[in-house]
Amino acid sequence: MIQLPEGSWWDWDVVAWDAGCLRLGAGYDLSYHHGLELVFDDPVFVMCPPRFHDPVFRRPTPDEVRTVSRQVEGTPAVLVAFEADAGGAEPASGLIAAGRLEVVQGIVFRYWRGKLAPGERLAPWVRAPEE
After folding, report:
1. 96, 42 Cβ separation under 8 angstroms
2. Number of domains observed in the structure of the chain
3. Cα R_g (the chain), whole angstroms
4. In the structure, what pLDDT confidence band is assigned to residue 75 with cuts at 50, 70 and 90?
5. Quick check: 76 and 54 in contact, CB under 8 A?
6. What is the reported pTM?
7. What are the CA-CA distances from residue 122 to residues 69, 102, 106, 110, 116 (Å)?
8. Rounded distance, CA 83 to CA 59, Å?
9. Scanning 35, 52, 104, 117, which has its CA 20 to 30 A from the CA of 4?
10. Residue 127 falls inside a structural domain
């Protein structure tokens, strides 16, 4: 099970995703920044809505474990399951298998900000304004 640090982590979205890393961001209002990231290194199976709210993380069911194990030929080091509000009539299920999971806390700004304090950073898509 994931142990999240204390905080207001009700809004979530996919911050970045490529072959080597899936990064989920969380906060109380994702308009300007997020304060928590779940960083999945070497994701091998991902079923996750792009934006969701109030996830309830849980142990994967035996069927979910079997499904992922068949897809990736073996048991992954990390397997995370959750239910969340993704805007539909029913909760959306999430299932992520990866080689490693890191929980990273710190302010990540989603807009250009020139002077960052220690521990602050910019989201991957933020670029400096043209001068």
Report:
1. no
2. 1
3. 16
4. confident
5. no
6. 0.92
7. 35, 18, 11, 6, 9
8. 11
9. 117
10. no
